[in-house]
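User: Please fill in residues for this 809-position structure.
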């Protein structure tokens, strides 16, 4: 090993604590940056790759065949900006049931299925990928899209359509994947005619009420690709071109490829702003700690630097030696951070590649290289700036350090600060400590910055925890005290449970609820899958039976529905359906069309992102989904357990059971965010504390002789501890007060960005999670960080022997 290498090794060993601080800061910065960068790249790669491979449709448009002919739709392919088009294809929506050979329980209710008549899998646009089986070759065969809600697991079974004459069946001959989600299933063009409702042609109005059978919602489908489709504005312009090229009112719905892309990125996009925020904090802490460590090393080793130069080291070699002392621990932390970031990336993206049938692993080596190189370059730059002073020092001045008097302007400023501190009504040790930061303002500024970033991280973490708690409350919307639901039928020992319990008749449940003396109010909920023009797949409708204004759903804008003809929906549905508050939406259920007006946007971050919440009175009489869950609010003073037990006994003959309501725990995504928040914040707080620790160690070493003198004059160990702790209070107090608004700002910027990435809008109440007592405690947190960081050096200074302290130079 060279002489320079031995100097570096000795310096790293001598300053172990400072090296640990640099390594931890680099670890946090690299972990967050690798995870954020990998999520940003890998979350988009599977969809983009599959979309390019399939030459996906930029716009999937549904038309009312009663208002447009096939020839007119063909002409729309030549509209300005349209580079390619496919269709028109006839479409129909059916309500299938499991038939012979299908691996689903007989009689189970399957989601509505949008079926398209297409002759081939690869017509040039939306070239769907066959996962298993083959494309249908004759009428009576069907290929099911992989994303269909009730997709069977095996081929060869059949789907029954009991609502059509003769109850025709479709044999499942294949499974396919369409990245554009243009349809739930495909049949041959001539096989589609048998699926239309009696008396309707293949192009009847999807919103009409003609026919009540299993085949409804018939129309035409066109697939378009545009010259410019990279933004929402470009897609809006492309849609407008198509609308103008077709007869007025013919377009019943359209789906943008950007909506499908946003849906594919939703889970990982939620993490990105969060990781960027922690990555920036980690990088700032890494640079700060590295600069403080090198500056402190140069400041306390001035005489050693003079010896090195006297022995022949050039200024450049001295600078490289001190830069290397920061890069060694930073390199170890960076390497560990790259590994940790990749390990966290893999589970987050575990299903993304398989979802689209791509071989993307989720790891991007170039992200690792870029992040590692950027972190080390930042540390090297700030270390070089701090170490440059060592290179500029004259050898004779460095060797003479400590042997000449002061008298500088800084010394005069420190003397005035000490004189002012003496006048404070405080014990003498505390006033001595409060004046010390003014003797080393640059060092005090470094301590202030460490506390500032530590407080910012703590405030941000508390805010994220409060917001995630708000999200969990919005997700569970547990407004009731008791929940009534069907009981699972008991079968023979060891037998598998039946597919689904059957809810009791409405009159039976309401009579039992009205008979209980503790009942204050209640409502029932029933759900079903429906189809909405322009929305891929099925949409889940929740129909409320009774007054649901107290159901606990969080509103983003607008209001809760107040009667028939109104509905509320989450932002994800509004985006995919291309509707806004005040617009009307028509959904098709079992051959019947129901039209509602959207009056409110509700925050409901469930996996099922396409949802509508309506009053059951919107349905024609006798067609609303039967309520299978009843939420009950009790009168004040009613015992929950006793009420539930009595109601359970009353509903036992109807095979219904009652449970006490309440939160059911955090979801996996929220738990993951909370866990990451706690871990990364703890690391940043440790780094902040170590930054304070490093500064105080330097101060204690430089003032060892002064401490010995005060001890010789009668200062007790407790008073010595008070001097050191008091010296960090100014930086801790100012850093805490400055870090509080920065943390609030970071929280206010990050949460909406997370919502936009996940297709959600957060209301102001999701950000208003800080109470006045919490803000006061967080502001005092800066002082706590400073005191904890200074405690160990203070104790060591108090325990030092007076005679040894007096010998220090």
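Assistant: Residues filled in for all 809 positions:
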């Amino acid at each position: 090993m060279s002489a320079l290498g031995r100097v570096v090794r000795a310096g790293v060993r001598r300053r172990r604590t400072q090296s640990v601080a640099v390594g931890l800061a680099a670890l946090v910065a690299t972990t967050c940056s690798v995870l954020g960068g990998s999520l940003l790249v890998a979350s988009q790669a599977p969809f983009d790759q599959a979309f390019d491979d399939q030459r996906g449709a930029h716009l999937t448009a549904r038309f009312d065949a009663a208002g447009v002919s096939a020839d007119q739709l063909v002409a729309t392919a030549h509209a300005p900006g349209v580079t390619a088009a496919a269709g028109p294809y006839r479409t129909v929506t059916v309500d299938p049931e499991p038939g012979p050979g299908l691996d689903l329980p007989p009689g189970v209710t399957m989601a509505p299925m949008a079926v398209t008549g297409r002759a081939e899998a690869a017509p040039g646009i939306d070239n769907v990928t066959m996962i298993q089986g083959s494309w249908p070759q004759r009428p009576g065969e069907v290929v099911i899209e992989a994303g269909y809600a009730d997709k069977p697991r095996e081929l060869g079974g059949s789907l029954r359509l009991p609502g059509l004459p003769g109850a025709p069946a479709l044999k499942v001959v294949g499974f396919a994947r369409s990245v554009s989600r243009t349809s739930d299933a495909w049949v041959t063009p001539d096989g589609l005619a048998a699926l239309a409702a009696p008396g309707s042609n293949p192009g009847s109005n999807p919103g009409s009420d003609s026919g009540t059978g299993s085949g409804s919602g018939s129309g035409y489908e066109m697939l378009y690709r545009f010259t410019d489709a990279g933004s929402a504005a470009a897609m809006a312009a492309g849609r407008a071109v198509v609308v103008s090229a077709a007869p007025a009112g013919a377009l019943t719905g359209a789906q943008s490829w950007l909506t499908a892309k946003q849906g594919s990125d939703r889970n990982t996009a939620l993490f990105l702003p969060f990781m960027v925020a922690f990555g920036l904090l980690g990088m700032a802490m890494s640079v700060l700690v590295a600069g403080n460590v090198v500056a402190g090393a140069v400041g306390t080793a001035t005489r050693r630097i003079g010896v090195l130069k006297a022995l022949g080291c050039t200024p450049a070699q001295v600078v490289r030696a001190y830069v290397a002392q920061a890069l060694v621990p930073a390199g170890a932390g960076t390497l560990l951070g790259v590994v940790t970031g990749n390990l966290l990336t893999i589970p987050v993206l575990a299903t993304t590649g398989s979802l689209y049938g791509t071989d993307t692993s989720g790891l991007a080596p170039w992200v690792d290289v870029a992040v590692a190189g950027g972190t080390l370059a930042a540390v090297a730059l700030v270390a070089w700036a701090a170490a440059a002073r060592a290179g500029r020092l004259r050898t004779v001045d460095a060797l003479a350090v400590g042997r000449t008097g002061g008298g500088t302007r800084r010394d005069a400023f420190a003397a005035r600060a000490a004189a002012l501190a003496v006048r404070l009504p405080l014990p003498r040790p505390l006033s001595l400590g409060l004046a010390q930061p003014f003797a080393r303002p640059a060092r005090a500024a470094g301590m202030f910055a460490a506390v500032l970033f530590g407080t910012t991280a703590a405030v941000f973490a508390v805010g994220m925890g409060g917001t995630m708690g708000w999200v969990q409350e919005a997700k569970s919307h547990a407004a009731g005290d008791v929940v009534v639901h069907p009981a699972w039928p008991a079968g023979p020992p060891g037998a598998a449970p039946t597919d689904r319990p059957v809810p009791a008749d409405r009159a039976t449940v309401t009579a039992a609820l009205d008979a209980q003396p503790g009942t204050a109010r209640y409502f029932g909920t029933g759900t079903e899958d429906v189809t909405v023009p322009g929305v891929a797949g099925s949409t889940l409708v929740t129909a409320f039976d009774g007054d649901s204004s107290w159901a606990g759903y969080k509103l983003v804008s607008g209001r809760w529905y107040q009667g028939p003809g109104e509905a509320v929906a989450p932002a994800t549905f509004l985006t995919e359906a291309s509707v806004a508050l005040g617009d009307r939406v028509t959904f098709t259920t079992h051959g019947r069309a129901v039209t509602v007006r959207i009056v409110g946007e509700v925050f409901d971050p469930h996996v099922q992102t396409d949802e509508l919440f309506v009053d059951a009175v919107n349905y024609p009489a006798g067609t609303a989904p039967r309520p299978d869950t009843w939420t009950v609010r009790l009168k004040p003073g009613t015992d929950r357990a006793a009420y539930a037990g009595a109601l359970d006994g009353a509903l036992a003959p109807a095979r219904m059971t009652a449970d006490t309501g309440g939160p059911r725990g955090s979801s996996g995504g929220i738990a993951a965010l909370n866990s990451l928040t706690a871990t990364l914040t703890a690391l940043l707080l440790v780094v902040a504390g170590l930054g304070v620790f490093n500064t105080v160690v330097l101060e204690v070493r430089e003032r060892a002789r002064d401490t010995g003198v005060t001890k010789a004059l009668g200062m007790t160990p407790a008073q010595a501890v008070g001097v050191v702790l008091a010296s960090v209070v100014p930086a801790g107090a100012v850093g805490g007060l400055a870090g509080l608004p920065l943390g609030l700002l970071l929280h206010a910027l990050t949460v909406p960005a997370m919502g936009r990435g996940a297709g959600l809008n957060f209301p102001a109440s999701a950000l208003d999670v800080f109470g006045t007592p919490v803000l006061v405690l967080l502001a005092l947190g800066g002082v706590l960080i400073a005191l904890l960081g200074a405690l160990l050096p203070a104790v060591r200074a108090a325990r030092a022997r007076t005679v040894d302290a007096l010998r220090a130079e």
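For context: The CA atoms of residues 349 and 362 lie 6 Å apart.
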